[in-house]
Design a protein that fits this description.
By secondary structure, the protein is an alpha+beta fold. Helices cover about 25% and strands about 30% of the residues. It is globular. Bound molecules: zinc ion. InterPro entries: NAD-cap_RNA_hydrolase_NudC, NADH_PPase-like_N, NudC-like_C, NUDIX_hydrolase-like_dom_sf, NUDIX_hydrolase_dom, Znr_NADH_PPase.
Length: about 325
């Protein structure tokens, strides 16, 4: 299969799946950062249709009403529940909700304590919200943005150039240093996550999956690792696979990406052509890695998350999409 078929360089991209269940990847908010100024936050907060996501570390507040969960609250309710309004930030406006502002604000520790006894509300982990499919995909994407951005603000209260206190700018899209005039933008940490594929002399393909030391079930997944400075995407894929399994890689092909807000990564999903097949694992990362045929992977795909028998991650993770894409291609 050629990446560029004929004159249409996007031909293959047009046939890609919608990645509908891929977690955190469907944020529709219009951030409009370039048009924000010092008045944007105040203007947005005052709009009657403004709604707030209330977060506390890796958790988000949900209200259970008529069996439905909602994560968006009006200003009055946010304040009543104990939102720390001094730390509010603008995420963007929702083009499908009449451009209503969407903001994020942390809950105080005291608010979390008080909510523990309130049956109307649940403080739910952001991972669990996605895995349990509790909210629409676009809201999950906005919550991921909120989680990364709120954490960045907490960790960048002081200027990394001169040490003075920084202040929020552009409604939360930047922090400025009044002392030395440095401007600080939120960072995203790229992570490569890749499915290595080996084709043997008889043309049979197998993919490389590993069991990570941190998995508490017999789940097998793709390899992954942080990109380093001055490294191309392709070089990072080759280096990570070599480090973790001693497999040499030739061609690398990008599929899709997934924001991963713990705290601020972007997973770059790729396929990698294995040029060797003799696996030697890095035992600090993996307990096992081996080659799987499509049939073996199909059997694992049929089992649910947490199964006692070998299985793969669910569609919430980009690993699942890489694995399923390869299985479906054969
Ligand atoms: Zn400074």
């Amino acid at each position: 299969m050629d990446i560029f078929s004929g004159s249409d360089v996007f031909a293959e991209t047009r046939t890609l799946p919608s990645f509908d269940k891929l977690g955190y990847a469907h944020n529709r908010l219009d951030r409009d950062t370039e048009h924000r100024d010092e008045n944007s936050l105040g203007t947005m907060v005052q709009q009657t249709q403004a709604r707030y996501y209330l977060l506390h570390d890796d958790n988000v507040l949900l209200r259970i009403k008529d069996g439905q969960q909602t994560a968006l609250f009006c200003l009055e309710r946010a304040q009543k529940l104990g939102a720390d309004m001094d730390r509010v930030i603008l995420l963007g406006t929702d083009p499908e909700e009449d451009n209503a502002p969407r903001l994020a604000v942390p809950l105080t520790d005291q608010a979390i304590e008080a909510l523990a006894t309130n049956e109307e509300y649940v403080v739910e982990g952001i991972r669990a919200v996605g895995l349990k499919d509790l909210l629409p995909p676009d809201q999950l994407g906005a919550i991921a943005q909120a989680r990364s951005l709120l954490t960045w603000h907490v960790n960048h209260q002081f200027c990394s150039k001169c040490g003075a206190s920084t202040v929020v700018a552009l409604a939360g899209a930047r922090r400025d240093c009044p002392s030395c005039s440095a401007v600080h933008f939120p960072r995203t940490d790229p992570v490569v996550i890749m499915l290595a594929i080996h084709r043997d002399e008889s043309g049979v393909e197998r993919c490389l999956l590993g069991h990570h030391a941190r998995f508490d079930t017999p789940m097998y997944s793709t390899l992954a690792g942080f990109m380093e400075h001055g490294e191309t995407l392709e070089a990072a894929v080759r280096r990570e696979i070599l480090e973790e399994s001693c497999i040499k890689i030739g061609a690398v092909r990008y599929l899709t990406s997934q924001p991963w807000p713990f705290p601020s990564s972007l997973m770059l999903g790729c396929f990698a052509e294995a040029l060797s097949s003799n696996i030697q694992i890095d035992e600090t990362e993996l307990t096992e890695a081996r080659w799987f045929t499509r049939q073996e992977v199909r059997e694992m795909m049929a089992r649910p998350a947490g199964d006692e028998l070998p299985h793969i991650p669910g569609r919430f993770s980009i690993a699942a999409w890489l694995i399923r894409f390869w299985v479906d291609a054969g």
